[in-house]
């Protein structure tokens, strides 16, 4: 069975990579393909995939995937561009994200009578981050104004890193006998050790890469590994020392993006394939081992919360945060809608699976349905909406628009 599973995953990777351009022009995104593949060939389908890896195995794969994604997303942040054009991402993260957390918290308390304040906050935090990969049709389409593409990309790249310490703090409060001591322990260990490990390991890695570059030691065939290995090194070291590997990966990525210099972009581009492969495996497992068994367990409260999470809970905060900007109403509405939920929410819900919350099943089922709705709804609407709103005014390649963003960013 293990070779059959390996062979099926290999066929999926081969077929999708060969037809990825065709899929990107259709209302079908990669996550939907991967998830449906898992459902079709998993235990509730044909039963050809042997993905009975248990919660620990699923958590390890999901954590490694998010660690690499966090590092790469943080490293991709162009500080010079952000410093010149910070207004929209700053509003999305500084105003929109807290409002999203608050609305999600309130909606959970309103719909789920048995859910505690802490559980409602955890559910809201799990579903707050957005996933740029699910909005790739939007972010990579140059007919969309550069400031919109870049702002959505920066938002999705940073909001999961911001939500990590929030989620870990909530879990620390839940696990501690005394809330104050638990939170203090979290701040000192999880955050402090995570930041320290991310900064130290990445700084050492960058110095090694500088020496290797100056002396011509690195062969181009190995250029895809330094970013991935640095991300995993930050993550593993922090976890080993009792800190948060996610915070370490995020902080390490920020530092890498700042000090890596000219070699940053070639290495990041080379590492994207590894991140895409890990994400593919995670989505397949998610479809086969998580979504499949959960089908049929959705209550009307779960259904309503999932719809609210993708609409009011996401869209109203974004619309409010963008008041006073030069964006048109349609552009604001466009940005408000394209907040797909994906990989970060999957990893977050896997993290809380082992927690002993009374309403843990409700939390998990709600997150699963929200992600399922998001994969379908955002995938189906991306290309048609871009075509209807922006196709008539494509940007000239390399032209900088009024916000100062250039297409290459």
Automatic annotation (TrEMBL):
Coiled-coil region: none
Record keywords: Antiport, Ion transport, Membrane, Transmembrane, Transmembrane helix, Transport
Predominant location: membrane
Regions that span the bilayer: 31-51, 92-112, 157-176, 183-205, 225-256, 277-296, 302-322, 334-354, 360-380
Membrane-topology descriptor: Multi-pass membrane protein
Compartment annotation: Cell membrane
Domain Cation/H+ exchanger transmembrane: 19-386
Signal peptide bounds: none
Entries under PANTHER family matching the protein: CNH1P (PTHR32507:SF8), NA(+)/H(+) ANTIPORTER 1 (PTHR32507)
Protein name per the record: Sodium:proton antiporter
Species whose genome carries this gene: Candidatus Litorirhabdus singularis
Source taxonomy: Bacteria, Pseudomonadati, Pseudomonadota, Gammaproteobacteria, Cellvibrionales
């Amino acid at each position: 069975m293990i070779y059959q599973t390996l062979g099926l995953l290999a066929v999926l990777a081969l077929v999708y990579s060969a037809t990825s351009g065709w899929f990107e022009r259709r209302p079908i995104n990669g996550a939907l393909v991967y998830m449906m593949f898992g459902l079709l060939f998993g235990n509730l389908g044909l039963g050809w995939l042997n993905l009975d890896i248990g919660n620990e195995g699923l958590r390890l794969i999901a954590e490694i995937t998010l660690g690499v994604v966090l590092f790469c997303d943080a490293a991709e942040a162009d500080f010079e561009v952000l410093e010149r054009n910070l207004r929209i991402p700053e509003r999305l993260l500084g105003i929109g994200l807290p409002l999203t957390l608050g609305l999600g918290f309130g909606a959970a308390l309103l719909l789920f009578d048995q859910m505690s304040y802490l559980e409602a906050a955890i559910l809201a935090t799990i579903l707050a981050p957005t996933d740029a990969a699910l909005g790739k049709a939007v972010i990579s389409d140059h007919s969309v104004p550069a400031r919109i593409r870049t702002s959505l990309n920066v938002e999705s790249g940073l909001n999961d890193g911001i939500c990590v310490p929030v989620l870990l703090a909530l879990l620390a409060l839940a696990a501690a006998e005394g809330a104050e001591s638990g939170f203090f322990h979290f701040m000192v260990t999880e955050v402090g050790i995570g930041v320290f490990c991310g900064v130290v390991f990445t700084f050492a890695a960058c110095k090694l890469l500088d020496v290797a570059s100056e002396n011509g030691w690195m062969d181009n065939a190995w250029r895809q590994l330094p970013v991935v290995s640095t991300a995993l090194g930050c993550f593993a070291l922090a976890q080993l020392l009792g800190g948060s590997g996610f915070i370490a990966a995020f902080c390490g990525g920020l530092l890498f993006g700042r000090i890596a210099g000219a070699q940053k972009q070639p290495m990041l581009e080379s590492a994207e394939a590894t991140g895409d492969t890990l994400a593919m495996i995670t989505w397949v497992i998610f479809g086969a081992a998580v979504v499949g068994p959960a089908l049929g367990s959705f209550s009307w409260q779960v259904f309503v919360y999932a719809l609210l999470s993708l609409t009011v809970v996401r869209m109203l905060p974004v619309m409010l945060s963008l008041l006073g900007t030069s964006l048109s109403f349609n552009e604001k509405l466009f940005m408000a809608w394209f907040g797909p939920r994906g990989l970060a929410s999957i990893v977050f819900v896997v993290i809380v699976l082992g927690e002993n919350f009374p309403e843990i099943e409700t939390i998990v089922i709600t997150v699963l349905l929200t992600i399922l709705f998001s994969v379908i709804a955002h995938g189906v609407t991306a290309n048609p909406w871009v075509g209807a709103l922006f196709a008539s005014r494509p940007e000239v390649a390399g032209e900088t628009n009024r916000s100062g963003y250039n297409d290459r960013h």
